[in-house]
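cron nightly-structures :: item 1 of 1
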Amino acid sequence: QVQLVESGGGLVQAGGSLRLSCAASGIIFNIKSMGWFRQAPGKQRDLVAVIRSGGSTNYADSVKGRFTISRDNAKNTVYLQMNSLKPEDTAVYYCNAEVMTSRVVATDYWGQGTQVTVSS
């Protein structure tokens, strides 16, 4: 079993910054990718950013140039630095990890979610 524990959400004014963290623990052979999704009330859960084991990244168009995803492989931790926040960034942010628990088994895991609220 693998657990993802998120931290760093909160309330911030528009234009401000927040940094989210997500640490994975448990039976981990390798982590193929780690990423962040978000879900606003009444909307679907959408990808924000993802970083793969080799370091390649992808971002949603709406956050490019404002958010930066990074990863500490030694700590099995992923970070999301969010700058120039806008009210439309308000959502519950979920950490996701594709984890190899053995050489052949890969499973998707989710964190519990952390609320980010941006006031105008």
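cron nightly-structures :: done
The mean pLDDT is 96.
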